[in-house]
Amino acid sequence: MSWLDRVRNRIPFIAKRETPDNLWIKCPGCSQMVFTREYLENLSVCPSCGHHGRIGPQARFDQIFEAGYSLLPAPKVAEDPLKFRDSKKYPDRIKAARAATGEYDALVTARGNIEGQRAIVGVQDFAFMGGSMGLGVGAAFVAGVEAAISARAPYIIFTAAGGARMQEGILSLMQMPKTTVAISMLHDAGLPYIVVLTDPTTGGVTASYAMLGDIQIAEPGALIGFAGQRVIESTIREKLPEGFQRAEYLLEHGMLDMVTPRAELKETLSRVVGYLMAGKVAA
To answer: Which of 55, 59, 61, 169 is most buried, judging by how many CB atoms fall within 10 Å of its CB?
Structure first.
């Protein structure tokens, strides 16, 4: 037995300490490793570079609502109207998305108070099939508008989507005029419609309700557009400007009213709602 082996055998055995797999998060923006706890306490915003991470409805509601908000029931719709199948059956994809997110569909709506201001808020979850717009999203949007009209409150929506849901074909595209008509109903009732665009908001969602707000707000760095940058460049055969389709670029070119950091959204929404609802008496 060598000297090294004898020394090794005399050293008391110390069990290897297990480190939780979720102790750190790698920031997609700057690639820095951030403590998960620090990241969550900072509203899922990187403390180093300010990158705004994607969050789901539950986290969003907790951030902007006062305690005591309530979820609106999810409308029931036909789940596989076209009997669509690619590499998987469409119902199987829906089941997997529901199991992963705990949500019925990609748009979740709740009622509550934002610093004393009543509001109905819808949040799209990109984790649910890319936040894609289908029958369920369209029905939830209309239900949110109807709840806002009934409560004499504004409707606020946080968008995050890759566009229309291809598994529902033309039925998904029909949600574009459907949601547009719902917004007209809200305006006829004299109530404001506020849009907060988050990363990413693209496709048919951008071409419909995401760009029809009375006030257009976006989170910093959010990707916002209809077609992808490579598709546009190959179509027009020109190089697009730096930062094209990002929130700051759109603000500079007049497509947004403001770009607001997540930490300031609650106060901003409360102030905007207060301005727009001034003088409106609940029915």
So the answer is: 55
